[in-house]
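Section 5: illustrative case.
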């Protein structure tokens, strides 16, 4: 522990700890609203949370791409 209640192996930066100090001082509704806003912004930018389940993402990345038969909509030679 670093004396502030956080274990270094949790991956929380000093800036993150400082931000959490301010966030915890807010009323519950303000924290909830801030959470939703930050989550929406981060997800729109492609960032993940420490709480996101990466199992599905990693599984999809390991899967080979699907290939299938293509049914042509138009023939190469024209009828007529």
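Designed sequence:
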């Amino acid at each position: 522990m670093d004396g502030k209640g956080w274990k270094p192996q949790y991956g929380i930066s000093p800036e993150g700890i400082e931000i959490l100090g301010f966030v915890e001082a807010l009323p519950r509704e303000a924290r909830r609203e801030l959470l939703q806003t930050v989550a929406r912004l981060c997800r729109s930018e492609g960032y993940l949370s420490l709480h996101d389940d990466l199992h599905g993402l990693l599984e999809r990345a390991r899967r080979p791409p699907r290939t299938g038969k293509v049914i042509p909509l138009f023939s190469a030679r024209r009828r007529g």
